[in-house]
Amino acid sequence: MWSNFSFNPVAASTGAVDYDQLWMFEVVIAVIMTVLIFLAVFVFAIKYRRRSPDEPPPKPIYGNLKLEIFWTVTPLLTMLVMFGWGAKLYYEAYTPPKDALQLYVTAKQWMWKVQYPEGQREINEVHVPTGRDVAVTLASEDVLHSFFIPAFRVKHDVVPGSFQHVWFHATKPGRYHLFCAEYCGTDHSGMIGWIDVMTPLDYENWVSGAGEGGGTMAQQGERMFEQMGCSTCHLANGTGRGPSLQNVYGHPVQLDDGRTVLADEAFIREAILYPNAKVVRGYKRDIMPNFQGQISEEGLLQLLVYIKSLSAAPQTPSPAVKPGVKTSLLSYPKAASTALMAPVARKAPQQ
Amino acid sequence: MSTTVLEQPRVHEPVNYLNADYGWKSWLFTHDHKRIALLYLFSITALFFVGGFFALLMRLELLTPPGDLVSSDTYNKLFTMHGIIMVFFFLVPSIPATLGNFCLPMMLGARDLAFPRINLLSWYIYIAGAIITLSAVISGGVDTGWTFYPPFSTTYSQTHVVLTAVGVFVSGFSSILTGLNFIVTVHKMRAPGMTFMRMPLFVWSMYATSIIQVLGTPVIAITLLLIGFERILHAGIFDPKLGGDPILFQHLFWFYSHPAVYIMILPGMGVISELVPCFSRKRIFGYEFVAFSSLAIAVFGFLVWGHHLFVAGQSMYAGMIFSFLSMVVAVPSAIKVFNWTATMYQGSVSYETPMLYAFGFIGLFTIGGLTGLFLASMGLDIHLTDTYFVIAHFHYVMVGGMVMAYMGGIHFWWPKISGRLYPENWGRFAALVVFVGFNLTFFPQFILGYHGMPRRYHAYAPEFQVLNVLSSAGASILGLGYIMPIIYLTWSWFRGPIAPPNPWDARGLEWERAPSPPPTFNFETTPIVTEEAYNYANEMEAHVGG
Asked: Do B452 and A177 count as a contact with CB atoms less than 8 A apart?
């Protein structure tokens, strides 16, 4: 029972180190305030105790405006520091860096399904390297879940009907808990997994060895794009009944009601599930069927990755790089590992 | 022989609200706010022990890491029912419906509340809600968590969600009616001379609470209705598969349920504002600041609900505004703590049971409030939310604060309510046991949360066991601390020494102008108020200046 006990939880990411600084700051403030209040209560209770039952009543004190102002303003200023610092940490924790390694996690009762852009899949295990920003896109097949890695001080709800994001930058290799933190039914406490943090070299070996036959996520998405018949209307040259999806993701789109919206993940999601919600200018309503209920969240993520790959070249995970990976990795571990893991960096030489 | 001595004065006892009539009809059809307060007292005490029993089973399960005592589904039902019963059927009505019902009219110098029949109706509605909810428990329970988050609650749960929601929905009207009754009573029923600024601070806090009850409760009622619509009629409101939005529910739910936290704690603050001056023989320090901080809490409390959604995908800038306002709402609570402490300065402090509970409240509420700042601080909330840190935080406020105040208040007004004195040393001992048991139960949970143990976990990782064992040990001590008062107060009701009208030498119309227990209509003649509250020094200028 005592063997596993420790007072300080492990901090295995850059965010966790920043987090613990604010945590310590607030602990110190809380301890100071608690000690002050307890001390005041004890001292007053003992010093001014009633010494005999018929002691004459003490002189009344109505109050003191200066004191009231003092103990209104001082806590407020202290709390503003907590607010500002906390908001900064929050902003950083929920703003994924641009060139992060991408991971796609689908939560369902009661498991975590993970897919890497390279195409591998895992359940309840997530392999990530140290020294890299890792951005996770979260989707839920059913109810609310929450993706929680205590060692990274990172958590985000997985909200059905939307994509959510979280990121981290692991620093210490090891195996860390992955918990579901939002109650999700019977086996909520069994919806746990492990984050395997590996050195970059180990990670390269793992990621290149663990591949499946299905190709990259983008390729899987492309196959689905054909199978579901999307490709019959969304012709690449723009002559189809639906708009071309080349260079759509991340760009503004004009709608038939005159609005212009950004084609982000939420837009793509809605366009697939409820195509009539926002119709692109120049195209007809009611042509495309609703895909709500026709496609799994995992499939949706693959389609998303595929559609992203059709857009701005740097987003494309190029399958052509793959065969050469192993050799380049062995000869130039560091440079190659970054090149492999960053879709952006990988494509960069071609520009 | 001792019985004859005790019985003797009873024969010649003047008529009071307890001995005015004895039949069951005189209780079930009473319009007397004091009798209704007792009806509430018995019902919420019963439900408190039902809710506490569920908690005890949970703590037993959590003694060991694997889920071995009860099944996952049973565990999920246990924490759900614990939460629903404790929040909606104990904490929300506790002080307002018992001590508020009993004291508020008397403190104002009124014969009863403004609407005595509505007051009785609100008890019946409360009982109806409780019976509906308990019938859901008996017929198999509900497993959504007290928060009813969809789409789990509307689409996936296989349990009695609708029945439970109906019970909570119904009980909400009881809360609204009590709030309405109190607001009207405070405005229209004050005795001559009882200006707003002469009202006891307990009345101020009841008034602030009532405003929240009347404005907030309809929102939870509508929200639960929408849950029913989606679950039964499959109307797409919250479930994305039906075209709804699960985050919408969280906004609606917390728009009530965060202010509801203040429904639960403000009355406790009101009780402490009575206890500290009485047992310090001192006027409260900074009356106006304590009074208006209650109203400030009621107003700002409505603007902070989004801090429950920091990790739910809420817009970052909305989150920042909610975080800022959550910091602001902490200020009036801090003001109260400082003023209570300052009241003791140069006082004449004695250590009767109610004051021990007040000490406990000030200390534990301080910890509960300060740990709330960790959660209001968005960056820290990411890791701490949905862990045991949150559990510890709100139990420090709700149990360490609210229940401490409730116990203190029950002991304080017990002589007035029952006409009997309770055994002081037993009271002190129980207060100490509650304090020790409480801290042992909930302090380890702060550390558990920081270490990352999620809440609502039936089974947990082995490294969390030490702290869980401490917590479970504390829970058994805490349980003992709550059972003791039941025993000695029951004894006191029948056998305790007869109480004088004002055993604490307290100020306030209920103590100074009415016998213990009071007659049905409280006062022989309508009191005329000529002084401010808490005139413990009997200052002449207050009498003269009026």
From this structure: yes
- Measure the CA–CA gap between A339 and A328, rounded to whole angstroms: 10
Give the closest-approach CA distance of B198 to chain A in angstroms: 13
- C-alpha distances (whole Å) from A284 to each of A149, A180, A255, A263, A278 are 45, 42, 11, 18, 11
> Do A233 and A198 fall into the same domain?
no
Comparing C-alpha atoms, which of B110, B292, B262, B109 is closest to residue B201?
B292
B287 vs A contacts (CB less than 8 Å): 62-63
B365-391 pLDDT, tens per residue?
A: 999 999 999 999 999 999 999 999 999
d(CA A45, CA B194): 32
Are residues A159 and A203 part of one domain? yes
Residue A270 structural domain: 217-310
**Chosen domain end from A197, A212, A227:** A212
Q: What is the pLDDT of residues A66-80, one digit of tens each?
A: 999 999 999 999 999
Q: Report yes or no: A184 and B72 within 8 Å, Cβ to Cβ.
A: no
**Per-residue pLDDT band at A312 (split at 50, 70, 90):** low
Query: Does A10 lie in the same domain as A151?
Result: yes
- Going from the N-terminus, what domains does chain B have, and what CATH number goes with each? 36-537 (1.20.210.10)
The verdict on A26 and A76 lying in the same domain is yes
Q: Which of B72, B362, B386 sits opposite A181 (nearest CB)?
A: B386
pTM for this entry: 0.91
* Amino acid A285: pLDDT: 86
Number of Cβ pairs < 8 A linking chain A and chain B: 291
B8 CB-near residues (< 8 Å, 6+ apart): none
Residue A322 maps to a domain: no
Task: Grade residue A6 by pLDDT with cuts at 50, 70 and 90.
Answer: low
* CB contact at 8 A, A84 and A69: no
The percentage of residues in chain A with a pLDDT greater than 70, rounded to a whole number, is 85
**Residue B229: predicted pLDDT:** 94
CA distance from start to end of chain B: 49
CATH code: domain of residue A238: 1.10.760.10
Residue A204: which CATH number?
A: 2.60.40.420
Looking at the structure, do residues A205 and A240 belong to the same domain, yes or no? no
Q: What percent of chain B has pLDDT over 70?
A: 96
* Residue that is written with structure tokens 């058994």 in the block: B476
Report the domain count for chain A. 2
Rounded Cα gap, residues B179 and B208, in angstroms:
9
Helix (H) or strand (E) holding A5: none
Element housing A134 (H / E): strand A133-140
Question: Mutation test of the interface with chain B: which of A3, A24, A41, A66, choosing the one with the most B Cβ atoms within 10 A?
Answer: A41
